[in-house]
Amino acid sequence: MLEIENIQVFYGPIQALHGVSLKVEEGEIVTIIGSNGAGKTTTLRSITGLVRARSGQIKFCGKNIERRPEESIVAMGISMVPEGRRVFPALTVLENLEIGAYLRRSDREGIERDLKHVYEIFPRLEERKKQLGRTLSGGEQQMLAIARALMSRPKLLMLDEPSMGLAPLVVADIFAVVERLNKEGTTILLVEQNAKMALKIADRGYVLRTGEITKEASATDLLNDEAVRRAYLGEGVYASTVTAG
């Protein structure tokens, strides 16, 4: 579904991505793990067109998209839930959701069906549909950000740090929703600092380090990789020593 080939991205004179290549097959959950500043968000932003790759190719369903306008990329079936949620604070929950469906705003019947669907996934949003975005809790804002992205009917849903700043129980609920969406047919590309939780639900994963892919493997293999466990899962020799002590 998605194929990135050797993209290089710069912020002014600073190179953020050094020839990143990855692919996502239809129906998969693929995760990108790495430290802060590794280039994970930049990778997602380059796919959506918010950041332009200086070189390389990005293909979605066989079509090059690296030079397409952002709204065209959304219309093709890619939607991103940004880091920090970015809900519109002065708009109601319902208005936020309707903005998610802006490119298909003439399809009122379809939008109503999709509203019912996201309310079924997130009942709390229906309870709060007249509340302003800024009045929601962090967990509710994350639910709204995901639901807003779903309103564009994405084939590929990209999530950037969905667990950030949330309580463990809320994080578990969010990840359960991600798994549900995947089972319903949505392909997922997930960037997540909680590497262990991400790898537990993913099919495959990539390790990104200082703008370069350093490892690609099945999620199970990455979970069992000693170097990955030490670097990103807080486990390994050091953790074992501390536990033993």
- Average predicted local confidence, pLDDT: 92
Strand content: 15-25%
Q: Find the structural class using helix and strand composition.
A: alpha/beta
Shape: globular
Q: How widely separated are the two ends?
A: 48 Å
How many domains? Answer: 1
- CATH superfamily, called what? P-loop containing nucleotide triphosphate hydrolases
| Low-confidence residue ranges | 237-245
CATH-defined topology: Rossmann fold
CATH secondary-structure class:
Alpha Beta
Q: Give the name of the CATH architecture.
A: 3-Layer(aba) Sandwich
For the largest beta-sheet, the strand count, sense and barrel status come to:
6 strands, mixed
Tell me how many strands there are: 10
How is this structure best described in words?
The protein is of the alpha/beta class and 245 residues long. The chain has one domain (2-85, 156-244): 3-Layer(aba) Sandwich (Rossmann fold), CATH 3.40.50. Helices cover 40% and strands 25% of the residues. The protein is built from eleven helices and ten strands. The chain has helices at residues 40-48, 70-76, 93-100, 108-121, 123-127, 138-150, 168-183, 195-201, 219-223, 226-232, 237-244; strands at residues 2-11, 14-24, 29-33, 55-60, 63-64, 78-81, 156-160, 187-191, 204-209, 212-218. The strands form two sheets. Strands 6-7-8-3-9-10 form a six-stranded mixed beta sheet, sandwiched between helices. A four-stranded antiparallel beta sheet has the order 2-1-4-5, with helices on one face. Helix 3 packs parallel to helix 6 (138-150). The N and C termini lie far apart (48 Å). The model is unreliable at 237-245 (pLDDT under 50).
